[in-house]
Amino acid sequence: MSGRARLMWDEAVTGYDFGSGHPMDPVRLALTRALVEAFELTGSGPGRVPVVAARAAGESTLRLVHRPDYIDAVRRASADPKSADGGYGLGTEDDPAFAGMHEVSALIAGQSVGAAEAVWHGEVEHAVNFAGGLHHAMPGAASGFCVYNDPALAIARLLELGARRVAYVDVDVHHGDGVQAAFWDDPRVLTISLHEHPRTLFPQTGWPEETGGEAAEGGAVNVALPAGTGDEGWLRAFHAVVPQLLAAFRPEVLVTQHGADTHFEDPLAHLAVSLDAQRAVAEACHELAHEHADGRWVALGGGGYAVVDVVPRTWTHLVALAAGAPIAPETETPQEWRHEVYRRARQSAPLRMTDGRTPRWRDFDEGYDPADRLDQAILATRRAVFPSHGLLA
């Protein structure tokens, strides 16, 4: 192992821009990068990560997940946005076509694939691409602000390189439907998604009964959380499902998606999770990678539409944890970053790296409440998939 961690970054990823007024504002990436830099997390030496720009994913790599006709449609829409084909999910309200869309989407995918390659080859233990995590894109269609599915492409590349078991854990508020679909029938991949219940949120999938195809029964795991779930419930659900399944599955690599849109300030969803709980889950993923995957950890971004107050702080914590230099929650945000926030967004920046919460949860083994909707959701998932892994629900 030649290094602890690596940050995948190319300034050009901020060109992933659906236009003014779209929730996926690329300022969230720029401000995250600026906050990482303000905390002096990049460079060489202990507690710092080198910054590496990988090549854009090429045609053969994209075809590991996406259909050739879809890639061709993205190329056409990228060259002439007015020609976007709605049949491929392009030119829609969620996924407006824009000039250069193929190039920047392939670049983001390339960073995640590069992260996976670096981890698999032992160049680093951990690799982070917070511009990635675009988990809704399907093999033949754009969906939910996602053009190319970089988490699925990273996993597919790991399998191509010889990985026999890859676990994917998705804690975005939306169901990781595109990654689940890509590996529905592949027993080498375990996909776990914790998300707001499909009754109340896009993409209306991710029911506990979705457990994988005939060749991979139990390979898809879905925890559908009631709207309004906060820190205690979110952490209870995570710890009631994820560690047990990873221990049983024994992944060689852990890929995680850290969408920040579970936060109580996020405008597009209905969970009530704090920055502090998001940090706690990132920390747990780091520990689980060491416990079950020999430290091999590919960590990606995802959704998150409180683009100033939440996303930069959450993903900076993620980078710091990967670097082995965790930032204490009570730490003040650097003054130069606050100035950058005002310059770019014309609003005040958060003053500390915390929401002032102390995340706590009760282990599921400490008791099941049959009247509690969260406990009902946890038990539904455990009953649906635990037996396939030799576990008791």
TrEMBL record:
Keyword Iron: no
Pathway the protein contributes to: Ketone degradation; acetoin degradation
Signal peptide: none
One matching Pfam family: Hist_deacetyl
Highest taxon of the lineage: Bacteria
Keywords recorded for this protein, A-Z: Acetoin catabolism
Assigned protein family: Belongs to the histone deacetylase family.
PANTHER family, alphabetized: HISTONE DEACETYLASE HDAC1, HISTONE DEACETYLASE HDAC1-RELATED
Descriptive protein name: Acetoin utilization protein AcuC
Lineage summary: Bacteria, Bacillati, Actinomycetota, Actinomycetes, Kitasatosporales
